[in-house]
């Protein structure tokens, strides 16, 4: 059992292919059962376990785990909604020599293990099954989901039925989109991986520790990265972005336009806005959008920035003015929240992973689709889904902080995908370091601490 950090994210179809490529599904189910039984034994210290088994291979995993727990002397009962339908589940059921209670009549146990449905769920649970799952989950002290909580759609994290909250979800073989994407991700409790030795490959993975650029003996302010932040109507947002770029590690931040606010850090260099200011070849990234406004002046600034040929971070208001299909002369990172994303790319089909990936391919830019489950997508198809932020980030200005931090990483010479990943990670860690009820200014300050 290990954390899912850095692991590949596989759709249900990709999981089936990985299983087929391995070739021995019975062995994989035995491995899964062993991992589940081992985890439960370690965590629940002898308390009685009730395992709910479904008709497919998720249920099969449950029968195997129950047999192994029983062989080890652990008190375990099984309840099922019906007979197993798959060959593997049937074989696993045959090797269980205890009783199988009808789900509707099952009495609760302190530990509930849900092995009803996993990646094969294709429609809402039958009403009776959903009701029994809730009844038994409510009465349990500790709830464990095998692979996925029953009722969540593996590929997009939607809930096909009402899903109870779990304390632990044991992801089998690989992470799935639903382990990361909301609302499903909010119902899983801790997510831990049981390695099945599949060595799955995917272009999508869970965020891991990112290597951040470090200054060395030969560093100077321009080599650390020079960021230009283009201000507009709402000065505060560009201020936050500028300070955040410095605190995330940029060597020099040039704030273009806007008024000189009292008490702002003197480390930010301020100039009036002019398109010519962007001619400085040392500028490694331009951040535009926080507080820009959407008027003609804002549009003119965005046009000048797009024509500058400098690497770009495009956020906030600038996303409402941008034509995502227009060719650009330089790499760009777009950082929309869901509303900005929908306005820019349309509502679209599929999971947030699918949609961010399609948007990156369409725009030729790295797309950071922000939220509790931030998705970073590169035009080449790579995707990273972030974990480890904080719901306290839902306060005004935290996106401006991310835009500034992203500019810092881009200006330091990281690729747009690596820059976006590093910034999202740093931002999430800063949020955690801030604790509760912080404001965006605190978050910007915390960037220095977590670096
Ligand atoms: N891939 C791997 O490497 C490994 C995978 N493993 C395990 O296999 C799991 C995937 O197994 P799976 O494909 O059999 O799917 P699963 O989730 O058990 O359900 C499918 C069954 O439910 C049925 N059904 C569906 N929806 C329904 C509904 N609403 N209401 C009622 N019935 C419904 C569906 O029937 P049908 O849709 O045809 O009616 C079918 O019978 C995976 O999560 C993991 O636990 C591990 O053992 C080891 C390695
Ligand atoms: N509930 C939440 N949980 C985790 N992160 C969140 C949540 N809500 C917002 N965030 C994060 O906070 C930031 C908000 O950015 P944005 O919506 O652009 O705000 P603003 O425009 O006010 O700066 C993003 O990085 C987003 O991922
Ligand atoms: K399950």
Q: Could you describe the 3D structure shown?
A:
The structure is a single chain. The chain has 451 residues and is of the alpha/beta class. The chain folds into 2 domains: 2-202, YjeF N-terminal domain (Rossmann fold, 3-Layer(aba) Sandwich), CATH 3.40.50; 221-450, UDP-N-acetylmuramoyl-L-alanine:D-glutamate ligase (3-Layer(aba) Sandwich). The chain has 15 helices and 18 strands. It has helices at residues 12-22, 25-44, 57-71, 87-94, 127-139, 177-180, 221-224, 235-247, 296-307, 316-321, 338-345, 352-363, 398-411, 416-434, 440-450; strands at residues 2-3, 49-53, 76-80, 100-102, 111-115, 142-146, 168-172, 190-194, 204-206, 226-230, 252-256, 269-271, 283-288, 312-314, 332-334, 366-369, 375-377, 383-385. Helix 13 packs parallel to helix 15. The longest helix is centred in the first third of the chain and has 20 residues, at 25-44. The protein is elongated and about 80 Å long. The model has no long low-confidence stretch (mean pLDDT 95). The structure holds ligand NPW, adenosine-5'-diphosphate and potassium ion. The site of ligand NPW has 32 residues, from helix 1, helix 2 and helix 3. Potassium ion is lined by residues 58, 114-118, 145-148, 150.
Task: Give the helix/strand layout.
Blueprint: E1 2-3, H1 12-22, H2 25-44, E2 49-53, H3 57-71, E3 76-80, H4 87-94, E4 100-102, E5 111-115, H5 127-139, E6 142-146, E7 168-172, H6 177-180, E8 190-194, E9 204-206, H7 221-224, E10 226-230, H8 235-247, E11 252-256, E12 269-271, E13 283-288, H9 296-307, E14 312-314, H10 316-321, E15 332-334, H11 338-345, H12 352-363, E16 366-369, E17 375-377, E18 383-385, H13 398-411, H14 416-434, H15 440-450
Parallel strand pairs: 2-3, 2-5, 3-4, 5-6, 6-7, 7-8, 9-18, 10-11, 10-13, 11-12, 13-14, 14-15, 15-16
Antiparallel strand pairs: 1-8, 16-17, 17-18
Helix pairs in contact: 2-3, 3-4, 8-13, 8-15, 13-14, 13-15, 14-15
Potassium ion is lined by residues 58, 114-118, 145-148, 150.
